[in-house]
Amino acid sequence: MKIFSGTSNKPLAQKIAKKLGIDLSPLEIHIFPDGEKRVRVLDKVVGEDCVVVQPTSPDPDVNYMELFFIVDALRRSGARRIKAVIPYLGYQRQDHVFRLGEAVSLEVIATLLKWGGVDEVISFDLHSIKIPEIFKIKLTHLSALPIFAKEIKKVRNNTVLVSPDMGGIRRIKVLSEMLNNIPFAIIKKDRDLATGKVTMNGIDGEVKGNAIIVDDMISTGSTIVTAANLLKNKGAKNVYVFATHAVFSQDSPKILGNSLLQKVFVTDTIDIPKEKQFPKLEVLSVAKTIATQLKM
Ligand code: R5P
Question: How deeply is 94 buried, as exposed, middle or buried, from its count of CB atoms within 10 A (0-12, 13-18, 19+)?
Fold first, then answer.
């Protein structure tokens, strides 16, 4: 097996390669002055199974294009099978038509990946469990929940898991089962589709002791911070967050850092540059889970 990395999360690709006991294969990625890229494979791949690691945030479009070019270069160089490890799969929140006239962006991405020559996609904690149905190639859906469960066991006493919206019910139930059925609660969240503004109207379930918010991603941070404020008002002692994808758009690192959250746990599905890190942040790695999957 040969493993290649795009430019979006090389540290994760290096960790995966290390777990597999191999080196990353070399690629040349040249950026022209106008932003176009020229990609060249610098390894022999004829008849080889190749893996490309490239989560897509930020910038989703730039990272997807780079991935398509790497896959094309591998295919033209004779690779046998190509697996795209896209730990954070961009556009997954646009997996169906919400309002008449909208594009289904994820379906466009799925089509491009298939026609570009990808045989399998490996991704993490997808926004909806129905997403693999959109893909006409195999999509292996991995989860960071076992990694979170291991960490949560350390603070489990007097703890309630909290989903910040109805969409997270399945996730919270699975995690609760992993932790011997610890109690969970669900916040009633509403988001204005036009403005993105989040409002929260109460909680189903009892909140006492430590509250652990579990979500698939943190983008602007408004879901998590609004949930944390609500939980504190309802009497939670400490509020923690476990979210798989640190999308961290706009001012979210600052907002999260200044919030009343005790700690924010995320994974390294997306690389977090130094300027987006803050003292309350702890990053757990998904490298071992991906390496184990690749060995299968
Ligand atoms: C929503 O359905 C998702 O699970 C996340 O809660 C949401 O995407 C987070 O976005 P933000 O951080 O911008 O509130």
Answer: middle
- Predicted pLDDT at 157: 78
Residues 145 and 128: their CA atoms lie apart, in Å, by: 15
> Which residue stretches of 153-267 are H helix?
169-178, 222-233, 252-257
**Mean pLDDT value across the chain:** 96
Task: Using alpha carbons only, give the angle 70, 290, 88 rounded to the nearest 5 degrees.
Answer: 60
**3 state DSSP class of 286:** coil
pTM value?
0.96
From the CA of 111, how far away is ligand 1's center (Å)? 25
pLDDT value of residue 7 = 98
pLDDT tens-digit readout, 252-265:
999 999 999 999 99
Report CA(81)–ligand 1 centroid distance (Å).
34
Ligand 1 pocket list (CB less than 6 A): 164-165, 167, 198, 215-223
Cα 187 to averaged position of ligand 1 atoms, centre (Å):
13
Q: Terminus-to-terminus CA distance in the chain, angstroms? A: 12
CB 224 within 8 Å of CB 245: no
The model's pLDDT over 227-260, given as tens digits with 9 standing for 90+, comes to 999 999 999 999 999 999 999 999 999 999 999 9
Which of 127, 198, 223 has most ligand 1 atoms within 8 Å of its beta carbon, as the pocket-test mutant? Answer: 223
Where do runs of H (alpha helix) occur along the chain? 10-20, 60-76, 105-116, 131-134, 145-152, 169-178, 222-233, 252-257, 287-295
What is the predicted pLDDT for the residue at 67?
98
CB 137 within 8 A of CB 113: yes
CB contact burial 203-224 (16+ within 10 A = b; e otherwise): beeebeebbbbbbbbbbbbbbb
**Is 188 annotated in the active site?**
no
Give, as one character, the DSSP assignment of residue 6: -
